Amino acid sequence: MYRDDNFKQKESVGQAFYHSCLGKLVILAIVIVILLLIAIIAKPSKATMIADTTDGILECIENNDSIKGDKIDDYMSNFAHVFTTADTTQINPDLMAGLRKYNRMEIHDHTFFRTAYIHNNVHPEGVRVAWGAYGLVLPTVTYSDLLLYIGKMHGDFNKAILRNGAIDDHDLGTISPAKEFHYKGNPED
Known about the structure:
Layout: H1 13-19, H2 21-41, H3 46-63, H4 71-81, H5 93-102, E1 104-109, E2 114-119, E3 127-133, E4 136-139
Helix pairs in contact: 1-2
């Protein structure tokens, strides 16, 4: 049988290292370290986080309508908010005043990214409404995360909840008297 020895080529040390599993793992680790260093350097500033998160919140208020979508609709509209800006002339000034009055935004700094949280009476522990990395701020806000107005739970605090009043003289019918063990189907009934 004829055997061709052309496939046996001498590899250099670099080529052998590149083709080995250890070499591929080392290269992957170097790429990950470079990406993490870029993430630390390109982390958005607090001012950028506040401005872009506020813009995303305003767009969420602007886009809110009577048709409530599912989570995928919220994610897609939030992704689109990265590339657009809110038209603040379209937003009701009362909603803007309620947004500023009842909601407090906090920016949390992490090693590789920043997050923005909204605190209000509905979410006292805070709910994440945006995160920023690599110079981008991605909003994750939904309309239910915001508290825009507060109404009275009980209209007039001086009025009694139960009111005494006279029952009209309408015939209310007759009620058969209930007996002991009536609900169990006592045969004596």
